[in-house]
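Please, why this fold?
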Amino acid sequence: MKTLGILGGMGPAATVAFLDRLLALTPAREDEDHIRVVMDMNPRVPNRHRDPPGAKEELGAMAARLKVMGAEILAMPCNTAHAHADAIRAAGLPFLDMIALTAAEAAGQLADGGPRRIGVLATPGGQDLYVAELERRGLTPVVPEVGGRRAFLDLVFQVKAGDVGPERRAEMRALAQALIDDGAGALIAGCTEIPLLMGPADVAVPLIDSAETLARACVRECA
């Protein structure tokens, strides 16, 4: 069993939800069967949209601290911050890449004759990462129009402020439905705030949850 280091706090509610999912997915019968986790729950990471250089520097420092704390494998339940994966890998530990893992699961839909058009709900930075990765795998990304991207980012910040009520849930479902109407046969929940508003039962196509995908990979590699 390996010690998992988590770069967290982006945002805090999504990190807590990720830990809950990690716990639920671990095949444990007693305390000792669970994964040892060391975490830097750091909501002070500079804004990934407005200060990328500052975010990169802090994420690299977090990874180095987690290594000193005993982490053997690193994971980060924040899609947008994966733009700075190179700074995290510089700590010299294996890093479970949520973007690559989620895109691979989307590609796996093709094994069953699934859709080649994959909808992406993500922040602008996260969207760019997913578009590149999906295209590299021969898939066609379907993304919101400009107004939809703004609406999605507004929703994310409302979730970060604690608003996960019925109106916000309806707005997220509407954004997802717009991608389905545009031909997406599956959707990537490419932001860890999405599961706080919407689950698989809320959409008519497969919903690939990036946080769930990462949690399963953590269990597979560490348990």
Summary: Strands lie at 4-8, 37-41, 73-75, 95-96, 117-121, 140-142, 186-189, 207-209. Residues 27 and 33 are 7 Å apart (CA to CA). The helical segments are 12-25, 52-68, 85-89, 98-108, 124-136, 146-160, 166-181, 210-222. The chain has eight helices and eight strands.
